[in-house]
Amino acid sequence: MPICEICGMEVNETHDCVECEAKFCDECGDVKTELCYDCIGWEEGPQDTELDEEHLN
Fold this sequence. Notes:
Elements: E1 15-16, E2 23-24, E3 29-30, E4 35-36, H1 37-44, H2 53-56
Antiparallel strand pairs: 1-2, 3-4
């Protein structure tokens, strides 16, 4: 049985991530976009947060 490179579990089927080429299971990525959860997090980018000017001084 194949092993998911994200969770390390034996699974029935893996999918290849189009970004990093990792083999991931249905639980560790989005099969429709063919992205593992690691790459989905990178694609979203950093959260927009406003810095409080008081903390900068």
